[in-house]
Protein: Transmembrane protein
Amino acid sequence: MLPRPILLYRRRWTLIFQVPFALLMAACFACAVYFAWRAHTPVVAAFFWLGAFGAFCIAGSLGHASLNAYRLREPALIIDEAGITDLRDTDPRTLPWHAMQRVVLDNYENTILVKLRPTPDASLVRTITDTLPRWQLRGDIVFSLGGLGDDANQLRTSLQAFHRAACPPSLAQHPPITADGPASTAGGPAPR
Structure:
């Protein structure tokens, strides 16, 4: 039996920290503009204008992020029997389970790492260009869980259950590998 779909929402309690810090940076911006306007030397004025610009950038980005976190109430990441859907992208698409070779939950970096199934007709150049980013990111596709409320144990078991249900292990037994190559099933010497 498949587990229930998991809907991961943005953490809204982080607004407790973001909003006051955004207001503090807005106050720093106002103070820097006031002191730059009142400065008597150009060097001091330039220093305060630079500080005002930095405070404006930080206050704007934090204010925008906190406004989005307050306003957006739909789930950010959906994990169900169809696959994994990241709704934070501008063009959300579902990554189906059958396209995934391996799915790993990384608690240290708070990410879901996905290794895609290789295409059988891929050229050597294509294989190398697909492998190099995989070494850097540790997966073909990485879903960040930063800022999302999740239960790691429930998420891990659900990922395993959905992936196992969509991609059951093959029942075919591969012949054992010996030092001379695959073992022969006819009882004769191993083919060379």
In short: The beta strands are 6-8, 77-80, 83-86, 94-96, 100-106, 111-116, 141-144, 177-178, 181-182. Residues 97 and 163 are 6 Å apart (CA to CA). Residues 177-182 have pLDDT under 50 and may be disordered.
